[in-house]
Amino acid sequence: MRYVIINGSPRKKNTWAVVEQVKTNLNGEFDEIHLAKENIPMCVGCYNCILKGEKYCPHFDKVSPIVERIKKADAIIMTSPVYAMNVTALLKNFLDHTAYLFHRPVCFTKKAMVIVTTAGAGHKKCAKYIDETLRHWGVNKVYKYAVACGGKDFLDKKAIDKIAVKFSKDVESKKMHSPKLNDVIFFDVWKAMAFKDNPIEADKEFWFETGLVNYDFSPDVKLGIFKVLFSKIMFRIMKKVL
Q: Which of 63, 26, 25, 27 is nearest to 46 (CA)?
């Protein structure tokens, strides 16, 4: 298995200590991406990645290699300590640069683990935000380990090992989990946008070239009959609304 680790911390302290413990439970290769070393300029909010395509991002040469490494991985580990009740600027800046993946998701066969640490509060909120972002990318299943570090003995190896083993077994099984209803809804929203009278051309091209317009969800993920019907109904509604 190939794991890509996106480290959103500017240093290797508490958050990275958890990562190292998680790695002891995983079998495979690790591709470490330390955002502090990537020197990605701040997102300028030009919307080019969404409206024209990611190649038109002024920082495409910095962001694209990272996205390609994510695509090649079997699973993602994304980390951040809590800074001012949110993820670090390093991680937020990277996620801002990948906003187009909300419109054009590509990670349907991947599992992910989110690791968040804090010296105070906000860890659950941050983990939830990263979880939601990854699911918008299409990630099939997200595991979360969020912890408040109360002193030198914060590293609960037993608790870390427990969730890491679950994550590892799931990745190696290659089993695809049924998506949540919210994930199905957003799939239908983005698919329906490709049928607008004046669609975003980058979106239309993606949905038609990948063939995803012909499915109720990613063909790599099986839906039960209820979710199939739910998706069909939502798609018709979204086409009319949009």
A: 63
